[in-house]
Amino acid sequence: MDGKVWLVLGTLVAVGLAVLAAVLLTRVFAARRLLVDAGIPLQDKALFWVAVVYTISPVDLIPDPVYLDDIGILLLALRALHSAAGAARSSKEPGAPA
């Protein structure tokens, strides 16, 4: 393969990762309503803001053309928020242990 093919493939991968990071950031902001829920622990709420700041910040573990670190942080924040919300929801259900 010549240099043009590698350039096109690299560009496609970079654009795909940027789109994935943008979609995940949008999902994190959509999950922000969970932040007002009193049953969610403070550390999970703080993780939300850390993920947002890290994604927007120009300082990264991996340089910005590769968004793998941003995507990982966003996935971690979404997973933590949703699992904390599920735990809080199940503890509020009638018949759940106090």
Account of the 3D structure:
InterPro entries: DUF1232. This is DUF1232 domain-containing protein. Residues 45-76 form the DUF1232 domain. It is a multi-pass membrane protein. The protein has three helices and no strands. It is mostly helical and 98 residues long. Helix content is 69%, strand content 0%. The chain starts with a helix and ends in a 6-residue tail after the last helix.
Write the SSE topology.
Elements: H1 3-30, H2 42-56, H3 68-92
Describe the structure using short key phrases.
about 100 residues; mainly alpha; DUF1232 domain-containing protein
Concise structural overview:
The protein is an all-alpha fold and 98 residues long. Helix content is 69%, strand content 0%.
What is the rounded Rg? 18 Å
Structural class by SSE content: mainly alpha
Calculate the terminal CA-CA distance, rounded to whole Å. 63 Å
Q: What's the overall geometry?
A: elongated
Order of helices and strands: HHH
Helix residue percentage:
55-70%
Count of separate DSSP helical elements: 3
Q: Tell me how many strands there are.
A: 0
- β-strand percent reads under 5%
**Major β-sheet annotation:** none
pLDDT averaged residue by residue: 78
Return residue spans where pLDDT drops below 50 for at least 5 consecutive residues: none
Protein name: DUF1232 domain-containing protein
Domain DUF1232: 45-76
Subcellular location: Endomembrane system
Pfam families: DUF1232
